[in-house]
Design goal:
Chain lengths: ~290, ~375
């Protein structure tokens, strides 16, 4: 029994780690009022660059840095379209997801079928760093001036601007920060979780990270609970396959998401999604 | 005089280029893939086959579309035909009905569908099937397991995968009558995270040998990390687990592609005579290979272990599992094969007789197989 619980916890941590990093990033981006549906694309770019750099240099940590840079750069593209050009954020994010998958696939030609010799352990510093980061991001969001600024930009950009906040700059920073975390999430996949490169290896995890950001109610600490719950249920869907239909277990986190959204919809303003989420803003607009 | 020479030379050159042009008559073939060509599994193997065919056949041109969702194949078939493809290969079981519909809509084009059973005058079927190789893998798995629990991470629970698991389980039981094959389904062809957690779940249950159907080296990597042996799938995966990838299944799709395209090019295959063309190519045709690395049927690291285990067989007497694998391999590589894993008497895991004594299963029976072999443990959708 203890064994059962222990393996489930370990697997939840391993599956949850990339989801946690990616969803923390998405939470910060969305808190600034910008939806980024390109998580899958940023993750796969991170996975590719992490693998390529780790393989070339022999240092998985350098790979992770490359992944962070790749994710941040991809997010910057989205920021230009979504913030500066005030394009449709949903369309731009979807395009980024497809661009990332395609670009990583093209760049990755010839990298498949190669093992990585030095890898990071699965439940590693990245897991603990992710947990610590969640606490720090939670504290920053609710208990610092920076967090207040970020939230105000996402809730009421015009008011924030009137109060002297550089809305554009804050949004750029939040979106790029989100991309950096998504890139690291992808890097974890290719240098720790499954140390190799195969095209499309994120296989939908980016989309789940977006769903988990919503599930968490844009709260970094609840994201911890959500990602590890998802990880545990994902693992248990195979562990208990003979007893419980796997589809049921894998559906649970999303059922929770719908329930959580329904509950949040009845709450006060400021508790649910940021008011200005997905709405482009131009200086001088109200 | 000068003019005459010039005209003659020009005519000669003209006729030469014309002849050259005739020789350079091209055939364009289009491929629809279900996964990304970089999956290092099924789609990767098809793409290797496509490239090899292109190298071997100077008149061949190819185009392909990867990561096509099952159900969307007809759209992409249209696209390839617009690009001038005369022959279309579709490479997933789920593309079967869409390919058939397209074959009816384009009666002047040639279609070939991998792993299915529906044909038309202009649509053939083909498969490089692994069931013999899986049986050989099973023999080895039965010999090296310590816990008696062998893991199988399955993709979709369709006949093809069930046939492979059954062949594998029959091999396991031929060596180790008390061993069991524990199956978990991921309901996906390509999903590394699911393959990984399914393998981890099986490790938690005590399984210590791994085989799988999923289009990435994930299961091989997971097993190696835990110091456990595994069998590679589709592509040479030994490099991911040099000590632990014991053997596996390798494919040579190019054998089928080259043969088929050559016959189309020569006019042997037309849009009217494909109704009965079904490539069911196995060891004998060289379409599949035993091993985790090309040209190496068994990882040398494991030969000693396999030689140390002996087993009593009805036809070959007492011999080591290593010799048994080699003998069965030689028997099955003959044409027609001198041995077939699905030879009666075979009962399913519920005790129902599925193959009567002395009978061999036909290709049609093999491709529509739904029952589970004895020793298979775990959910089995559509079990009769």
């Amino acid at each position: 029994m203890i064994d059962y619980v222990l393996t489930t916890v370990v697997r939840a941590l391993a599956v949850g780690t990339p989801l946690l990093w990616a969803s923390l990033g998405e939470i910060y981006a969305e808190r600034s009022g910008v939806v980024n549906l390109g998580v899958e694309g940023m993750m796969i770019l991170g996975a590719f660059f992490a693998f390529a750099v780790a393989h070339t240099t022999g240092h998985p940590v350098l790979g992770l840095l490359a992944a962070a840079a790749a994710g941040g750069a991809a997010a910057f593209l989205h920021a230009v379209v979504a913030i500066t050009l005030r394009g449709n954020q949903y369309v731009s994010g979807l395009a980024l997801a497809m661009f990332g998958l395609g670009a990583a696939g093209v760049l990755g030609r010839g990298w498949e079928g190669i093992p990585l010799l030095t890898t990071l352990p699965e439940v590693s510093a990245l897991t603990y760093l992710g947990l610590g980061l969640a606490v720090v991001l939670w504290g920053a969001l609710y208990h610092t001036r920076l967090g207040l600024v970020l939230r105000s930009v996402g809730e009421a950009p015009a008011a924030a601007a009137a109060a002297g906040v550089n809305v554009i700059l804050v949004r750029y920073a939040a979106v790029v920060f989100g991309g950096v975390l998504a890139g690291v999430a992808g890097g974890f996949l290719s240098v720790a979780y499954r140390p190799s490169w195969t095209e499309g290896m994120t296989a939908g995890l980016g989309w789940i990270a977006i769903a988990l950001a919503i599930f968490a109610g844009w709260d970094p600490l609840r994201a911890v609970a959500g990602t590890f719950l998802y990880g545990a249920l994902f693992f248990l869907s195979f562990r208990l396959q003979a007893q419980i239909p796997p589809e049921f277990l894998r559906m649970l986190p999303f059922a929770f998401t719908i329930a959580a959204l329904a509950v949040m919809a009845r709450r006060q303003r400021g508790q649910g999604a940021p008011e200005a989420l997905g709405v482009p803003w131009a200086p001088g607009e109200r | 005089m000068r003019w005459t020479v010039a005209v003659v030379v020009a005519l000669l050159l003209g006729s030469l280029t014309a002849a050259g042009g005739a020789q350079q008559r091209k055939l364009k073939a289009g491929f629809i893939y279900v996964g990304p060509i970089g999956d290092y599994g099924w789609t990767h193997a098809h793409d290797v086959g496509r490239r090899k065919a292109e190298q071997q056949l100077p008149w061949l041109e190819t185009v392909f579309i990867e990561s096509v969702k099952e159900g969307q194949e007809t759209l992409f078939i249209d696209k390839l035909i617009q690009q001038g493809a005369r022959v279309i290969f579709t490479t997933s079981f789920g593309f079967m009905d869409g390919t058939l519909a397209a074959a009816r809509r384009y009666p002047n084009h040639i279609f070939a569908h991998a792993s299915g059973f529906k044909r038309a005058p202009n649509m053939a079927t083909y498969m490089a099937d692994f069931y013999q190789v899986y049986y050989l893998n099973g023999l080895m798995a039965g010999a090296v397991t310590r816990s008696g629990k062998i893991a199988y991470v399955g993709a979709h629970p369709i006949s093809e995968v069930k046939r492979h698991i059954d062949a594998f389980a029959l091999g396991v039981r031929a060596v180790n009558p008390r061993a069991t094959v524990h199956v978990r389904w991921i309901n996906d062809w390509f999903n590394p995270a699911a393959a990984k957690e399914a393998a981890e779940a099986l490790i938690a249950e005590g399984a210590d040998v791994f085989a799988f159907t999923e289009d990435s080296p994930t299961v091989v990597q997971v097993a190696a990390r835990r110091n456990l042996p595994s069998f590679g799938h589709y592509s040479p995966m030994k490099r991911f687990a040099p000590q632990h990838c014991l053997s596996g299944q390798l494919v040579h799709w190019d054998k089928i592609y080259v043969d088929f395209l050559r016959k189309v090019y020569q006019g042997t295959y037309t849009t009217e005579n494909l109704e009965k063309v079904d490539y069911w190519w196995l060891l004998a045709q060289g379409a599949v290979e035993l091993g985790c690395e090309m040209g190496e049927p068994i990882n040398p690291q494991w030969v000693g272990r396999l030689k140390a285990v002996t087993v009593q067989t009805p036809d070959l007497g007492r011999l080591s599992v290593y010799d048994l694998v080699m003998r069965r391999h030689a028997q099955m590589a003959k044409n027609p094969p001198a041995f077939d894993p699905f030879t009666g008497p075979i009962r399913d895991r519920k005790g129902v007789v599925r193959v009567p004594t002395g009978k061999r299963m036909t290709v049609a029976e093999l491709t529509s197989m739904e029952w589970a072999a004895p020793g298979v443990v775990g959910p089995w959708p559509k079990e009769p």
